[in-house]
Design a protein that fits this description.
This is Large ribosomal subunit protein uL10. Belongs to the universal ribosomal protein uL10 family. Pfam families: Ribosomal_L10 (PF00466). It contains 6 helices and 5 strands. Strands 2-3-1-4-5 form a 5-stranded antiparallel beta sheet. The protein is elongated.
C-alpha cells in the first residue's frame, strides 16, 4: 500500500473514531439493494435532521470502534455497511425504522447507545418514543405542575383571608 493511501485510511479511521466518540447514538445499517435514488433520499432525511450518515469499509469502522474501546460491533461488520451518527437517538431511530418500513432492502444491523450495544428491537422501541422536544416539554410540565398547585393554594388562602377581613370590617361597621 502506498503512503498516501495509508494516510487516507488513517484519516478516515480518525474521523470515524471522532464521530463515534462525539455521538450518543451510532447505528450500523446494510444498504445492499437500495438504488442511488433511495440512498440519496435517506441521506437527505438524515442531513435535514442533523445526522451524519457515512458509508465505510468494515475494517475501518472496526478500527475506529476499537480506538474507542468498543468491540461489540465486530460481529455485525459484514457486507456493505453504512453508519449513522446522531446526538438524538429518537430522531435517528425514527428515520431508520420509518425508512426501513417502506424500503425493505435497508437492514438495521445494530446500534450503540452511549457506547453500549443496542439490538434492533430496542431501536424499534426507541423509534416509538415521542421526539426529544415533546419529552422535554412533558418533563417541564410535570415540574411546573406542583408550582401551579402551590400558587393556586396560596391564592385561595389569600382570598379566604381577604374575605374574613371583609367580614370583620362589616361587623365593626354594624356595631
Amino acid at each position: 500500500m502506498t503512503k498516501p493511501q495509508q494516510l487516507k485510511k488513517e484519516q478516515e479511521v480518525s474521523v470515524l473514531s471522532q464521530y463515534i466518540s462525539e455521538s450518543s447514538f451510532t447505528v450500523l445499517t446494510d444498504y445492499r439493494g437500495l438504488d442511488v435514488a433511495e440512498v440519496t433520499e435517506l441521506r437527505a432525511k438524515m442531513r435535514e435532521a442533523g445526522i451524519t450518515f457515512k458509508v465505510a469499509k468494515n475494517t475501518l469502522i472496526k478500527l475506529a470502534a476499537h480506538e474507542q474501546g468498543i468491540t461489540d460491533l465486530d460481529s455485525y461488520l459484514e457486507g456493505p455497511t453504512a453508519v449513522a451518527f446522531s446526538a438524538d437517538p429518537v430522531t435517528l431511530a425514527k428515520i431508520l425504522v420509518d425508512f426501513a418500513k417502506t424500503h425493505n432492502d435497508l437492514e438495521i444491523k445494530a446500534g450503540l447507545l452511549e457506547k453500549k450495544n443496542v439490538g434492533v428491537e430496542d431501536l424499534k422501541n426507541l423509534a416509538e418514543l415521542p421526539p426529544r422536544e415533546v419529552l422535554l416539554a412533558k418533563a417541564l410540565g410535570a415540574m411546573q405542575s406542583p408550582m401551579y398547585g402551590f400558587a393556586g393554594s396560596l391564592a385561595g388562602l389569600l382570598r379566604k383571608f381577604v374575605y374574613a377581613l371583609d367580614q370583620v370590617r362589616e361587623q365593626k361597621e354594624q356595631a
